[in-house]
Amino acid sequence: MDGIVQDITVGTKRGSDELLSACATNGPYIMSNSTPSGEYTNGNDSKKFKGENRISGIMPSRVIHIRKLPNDVTEAEVISLGLPFGKVTNLLMLKGKNQAFIEMNTEEAANTMVSYYGTVTPYLRSHPVYIQYSNHKELKTDNSPNQARAQAALQAVNAVQSANMAIAGTGVPDTAVNLAGQSPVLRIIVENLFYPVTLDVLHQIFSKFGTVLKIITFTKNNQFQALLQYADGSCAQHAKLALDGQNIYNACCTLRIDFSKLTSLNVKYNNDKSRDYTRPDLPSGDSQPTLDQTMAAFGAPGIISSPYGGGTGFPPGIAFQQAGLSVPGVHGALAPLGMPSAAAAAAAAASRMGIPGFASAANAVLLVSNLNPERVTPQCLFILFGVYGDVQRVKILFNKKENALVQMFDCTQAQLAMSHLNGQRLHGKAMRVTMSKHQTVQLPREGQEDQGLTKDYSSSPLHRFKKPGSKNFQNIFPPSATLHLSNIPPSVTEEDLKMLFSSTTGMVKAFKFFQKDRKMALIQMSSVEEAIQALIDLHNHDLGENHHLRVSFSKSTI
């Protein structure tokens, strides 16, 4: 019974007497009269809590019990755990036991809070903390100096909350309290997006630094971006300092983070593009995401859903590589995550989404449909899909020439090509790209009629990614109207290149040589479809002087 108190009332003569006799060494503020809820306040927290992270069998209460707090946690940080869900009306800090109790203004607010943290582990100062209902219906504290700081922090937060918060009908604040003087909203840009980054992955990364209230993802200037709102500005500040410039995956998916001018986000729908974690009642906006919405990491709203549901939307072993910063609290996050693991994560995501024909995470064969049978050739698919990986074989189906199979080098490249090329227009028709049920593309048997519809490119010199660590891995972008040209000989002029690209039945809108390197240039076509055709026609074009033109999609515009 060490540290266990038999009465909730603290500050009365009876409560003080019992508390002082029961736990003189720890201060008169232990608030439990029994242990079924896990409110077992052993000072070093070494005993296993019965009912840890469980709410079954415990009656809902306005009082929330928080355990395993870090030693240097502040009162404001503890309060911030409850702010997304309503008004915090009382606070009891037990720093010697790394615990606290907070009281919400309504049982509904407390219920929302416990339900939310039942699926998403909250973090304070990069340490996981544990939240559950208290056995008690009300929290009473006295005016002891030990609690003066807690009460002062609570009063300060309530003053700001009263002045600045618009309380919604559910009691959930529409605007977060800014305890650090900075905006609680971060603007996040993911550069070099080699692998899809999901809303769930962002939530898992950023929730290490505080309670994430809302996230909105979108594509702007051909860059995947997000707005993310914390419960308070101090969390946003810590996250920015820790994460700005870090890589999610090895050598790619770099985070660029700034404070937003916004102080609150207005989220209308909970889906793969946006989410308000304080409002689970919001509609999805559409009944079922289409494949386009699901797979288009660029150029269209929506990205692949995480395969790690239940608030753990982070692949096991994921780590920030640039500074060797592992994500705390994620099992297996001690070692850097290499490309194969990220590939498996992306493939697993596709499998979980129920993409038609997806048979295995190791499948590297794509089914391409809705092609123009009069114009499509294995060579044009080899060049186009080769922007996103090393194409091994291409087969246009003999009796259904509007369909083709494209075998990439591995499942990562297949996933990448699918996410970028599905829905893009080729030869006047929008391609459909999905995973095939086939594991390989079979070559025709000797003597079998094929009409040149099947080609083996496994030993092609035009593979872009055959060299490990090639810079080409860092320059993979979605199809765009602007093309990047390289390997241009000194004798070739701007007019020469404009004339060459105009000959591909497209119209050149702009051109610019790189100022410091005239071997490279940007050329802008009048549409993405024209740029795709120009890339197919002119990649590896012989410009003379033993120079073959290299063409790829650019993230920049002219």
In summary, what is this structure?
The protein has 558 residues and is α+β, with helices and mostly antiparallel strands. The protein has helices at residues 13-22, 75-82, 107-117, 148-164, 199-206, 233-243, 291-295, 339-352, 378-385, 411-421, 494-502, 528-538; strands at 63-67, 88-94, 99-104, 123-124, 127-128, 130-133, 185-191, 212-220, 223-230, 247-249, 252-259, 274-276, 365-369, 393-396, 404-407, 425-426, 429-430, 432-435, 454-456, 482-486, 508-513, 521-525, 542-544, 547-548, 550-553. 22% of the residues lie in helices and 20% in strands.
Give a description of the structure.
The protein is α+β, with helices and mostly antiparallel strands and 558 residues long. 22% of the residues lie in helices and 20% in strands. The chain has twelve helices and 25 strands. Strand 2 and strand 3 (99-104) form a beta hairpin. The longest helix is centred in the N-terminal third of the chain and has 17 residues, at 148-164. The relative contact order is 0.08.
